[in-house]
Amino acid sequence: MKEHLAITLDKVIHQKTRLGLMSILMVKKEAEFNYLKEKLKLTDGNLSTHMSHLEKEGYIKIRKQFVKKRPKTTCGLTEKGRRAFSDYLNNLEQIIRVIPKD
Amino acid sequence: MLIFYKTIDKRDNRAYIYFVIQSYFYKKLICVEIVMDKNQQQEALESIELIKEIITRTQKEMSLAGGGWIAIVWGVFCYLGISGQKLLNLYEGQIGLWWGGLTLLALGATYLIVKASVKKQAQGKGRKVMRWFFLFWLPLLLLAYTLTFFCILLPGISENYITIFILLVVSTGYLMLGFLFVKELIIMGILGMVSTIVTAVFFLEYNDIILSILFGTGLIITGLYINQKWKKLS
Description:
heterodimer, A: alpha+beta, 6 helices, 3 strands, elongated, B: mainly alpha, 8 helices, about 0% strand
């Protein structure tokens, strides 16, 4: 019981939308704002909030630039974000392993 | 709790009552913890399921990156190859050298495309694509060229079978890739095999022209389709 109580999940990643966002960035080096918006089925504002949250934690890096005079926002995982995601996965595994199923 | 129970003086009512109250809350606490554990486990399972689904879907999308251009390169290779061969036939040029050089060029272009698409993928994933490229298509190409070599060396086998052998090997490659990764490639593999066999049986004399045009067109159309799909996805 005590072993389990020591497992704490990263609350920033644990939120479903942010978890989805991080999972995509684990495969794709960089993803565009519109791509993420479509894949995660979010509104502009909603996605922006989640991205800012992750950026504040230092998990992702947001890059804003102009391509053909149009704004283009892309983001990618930072080393810290990659490590946090791996730790998060390890913790999930531990929770499943430690707690008996019935 | 047990240690505490052993140390209390049962004659001391206050301590005993304190113990009973404490053990009651302790049991309650355990119950709450168990319920929380179950919820946490359920949540953990759901999260893992979500991660698995998203990663698989994104990886499948990423497998299309560059695939279109590779198909176009090999489609153009078929057209250039057969055109060059026919021209060299007229002037008695080195056909083997032409196909060999063209293959090296196409391989070089494919390598560059794969390398560029690997750059778009996250750390560690790219190596898998490169490995797949080298461990799958290179041995198949080697097999195709070995068969060609045998066709030229062995007097009993007609040179007309060279293209047939190569394309049967390539079609097998598509079938294998289809079974392993992208199901759509199974159709390409079957179509390739059927068209090769039909051409070998009914139009053996013109098989090189027919099959080069068929495979060349097929590859270019597939390449354009994959590129379009990739553009939509990304």
